[in-house]
Amino acid sequence: MRDDDGRKLDHKMLESLRITAVQHVREGAHPEDVAKTLGLHRKTVYGWLARYRKGGTEALRAKPLPGRPPKLSEQQLRRLYSLIVDGDPRRQQFEVALWTKQVVRALIRREFDVALSIASVGRMFSKLGLTPRPPLSRAGDHDPEALARWKREELPDVRVAAQVVGGTLYFCDDIALCPHGGGDGPDVHMIWAATTKGGFWFALYEGAMTPAAFIDFCRRLQHDSRRPAYVVVHGGAAQRATETERFVASAEGQLRLFFLPGRAGVSGSGPSATPPAPSGRPAPAGSRTIPGQRRPA
């Protein structure tokens, strides 16, 4: 039995309790007996009776809870979006080349004098449309059986290869965004890379997805990673372009791309890596050959 004022109950349950208590009193029960039966303080029941006498049953109903006021105004959100679309965080005096939740949180604090938690920044990303798909979630673009087989048989080898060289395994994708707030603003693409441990890096580019944009993103990812980057990609035109192949080759093993298998509309899109690992580097002991990598003779 409770002996409290009911504030621990949710609003709908508390509304029902108020109406029930007043109804019992109207039917002849003593307010203190009602309070004892319901496990409430007698002052709570007397207060409900006073509200009923003043405003009737409607005065006993739960009032809608006001939502928290937004931390940033719509004008500030547009300003923030324009700063991110502007490109490289280094233009905003940050040392990193790609945006993260932590960097955006610091930018908000500096530009608007508003302190947000990482969780709040994540919710704000959703409001701005900056919400990526989970890694390997775009299954509709790939043959489901081939993708499942790749995840089961090939992905573990890619993980091992990245670990052997002290690298990081990323899953990379891109999505087209509508300009924040609608309107006739330029088309924007978000390219992002994520790890299975929750790391998330991204950049925004105006216009269509191009090899130049993808190469720029890879260059910036290398800058922030400072270790070999093993990147799983979906194998779109920009990722398979000749310019991209040349750039990856010039990285001398510090950047490797792994294409997911069975991409719809791409001929010969089986699992492969670009470029092959540098010759003379042995495959990890006990592992299978990584797609696109030859075992040394």
TrEMBL record:
Region (Disordered): 266-297
InterPro entries per the UniProt record, alphabetical: Homeodomain-like_sf, Transpos_IS630-like, Winged_HTH_dom
SUPFAM superfamilies, alphabetized: Homeodomain-like
Signal peptide positions (record): none
Winged helix-turn helix domain segment(s): 96-154
Domain of life where this protein originates: Bacteria
Protein name, UniProt field: Transposase
Taxon lineage: Bacteria, Bacillati, Actinomycetota, Actinomycetes, Jiangellales
